[in-house]
Structure formats: C-alpha cells, structure tokens
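seq:
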Amino acid sequence: MDSNTAPVTVGRDGAVGIVTLNRPEKRNSLTVEVKEALLAALEDVSADASVRAVVLAGTGKSFCVGQDLGEHVESLRGNASTSFDTVEKHYNPIVRAIATMPKPVVAAINGSAVGAGLGFALACDLRIAAEGATFATAFSAIGLSADSGLSASLTHSLGAARATELLLLGESFDAAQAQASGLVRAVVPAEAVLDEALTLARRLAAGPTLAYAEIKKAVAVGAVSSLDTVLAAEGAAQARLGVTRDHAEAVEAFLAKRRPEFEGR
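struct:
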C-alpha cells in the first residue's frame, strides 16, 4: 500500500517514532482498518529498542474524531449484538498500548479530538495542541457511555465532578481551556504542532528512558492504589533503576559537573 494512502503511517526522526493517523478526508475517524493499523503501528514502535520516544499525530484538520459512524451504522444493521466487540478487540488494546508503552508518548493534537480520539490523546503522556483544536466526549449524544479509558483519564485529570459534566453533557472545550485545566502542555499555531511535539519527543528520547518507563508505571499505580502499595512500588522501581547504566552515568556526570549521556540501559 502506498504510504500516501495507508490509513496509518510510521516515520522516524532520529530516535523518535512518529505514528500518524492518515485519513484526513474523514477527519481521521476510526474504521476497523484504521484501528488494526494503528494498533500494529503502536506495537511496532513499542517493541523497537531504537525508538526512545513516540509522537502520535493526525493528518489534515483533525487529530481524530472517534468511531466512523458510517461503518458503525452498517454494523448495527447487520448484527447489533456484535457491534461493540470492537471495544475489547480494538479500542482497549490501543489505549493499553499507548498508556503502557515503555517510552514516552507525545500527542500532537492538530485539530478536533473527539470520542475515542480524545481517549487516545489522554492516554498519551504529554500533549501539544493547535490553537484551533477542540475537544469533546460526544458519547452521550449518540446514547452511549465512554470508551477508550475516558472514564478514568478524565477523572484522574480533572476530578470526578468535571469528568461527569463532560461525559453527561458532551459539551466541547477549546485548546485554551484544555491548557488551563492541565490537559495539554502547550498551545501553538496549527502549523507548529508537529514540530513542537517532535522537539519535546527529542528531548525525552535523549533522556533516561528506563526511568521514564518506571515513572509511567508508578503514576498509574499511584492513581488507584493505597499509600502502602505506592510506597512498595516506588521502592521496587528505585531498586530496578539503581543498577542501570543510566543511573550510574547520571551520578558520575553530576560529580564531574558534566551533562549525562543516557542510553536507556
């Protein structure tokens, strides 16, 4: 398949992998083909040791507006009882692949992030948004509850009250509001979104990626666990990182008053 027509493309910028939703004429909405390609791409960059950070992006004027409703209607008309198998087969594995990837993932949100598109963005570790980007849950408008982890990611990010409001009412919010609430790190002109995300990803790729992986796991545990569980998890992580080359290098560099050179080992 030509890369110009592939539903998802994978590129490289040094040690940064770039996974791009490539269905701009349909606002990067999600068909089975797109979901399967996205999951495969995420698994590939996750397994590639030469990739030390990842950018998740979209082409055109939207990041991702969620499920392709045309395909969904056809599925409902065919057999409604199996229409939502895609949640367990596609959406859940995609979100897990992003959230548990053992390297940082930066979302380059070039436009609308709606439904599962918002879920994918919030599964990333850091987010850069375009000035004109808009966000919405959208599920209640079609008589559904959330998928793609939004019930958790919105609650952890904004609190239960605001998450409930967004999920019940489905009201959209803009990039400035997203930044004010801490959902995105920065808001930049649309043409600068990918460059800004790549700059951030390059910085992360040059850092202690083993420590980043442990930080991601620790935050996930900390969001839902007791203090004793968190303390035990932190102690275990420190013990694992304490014998790495990156930790020894950073300590030696500090004493020598030079910049450390991290290798992810």
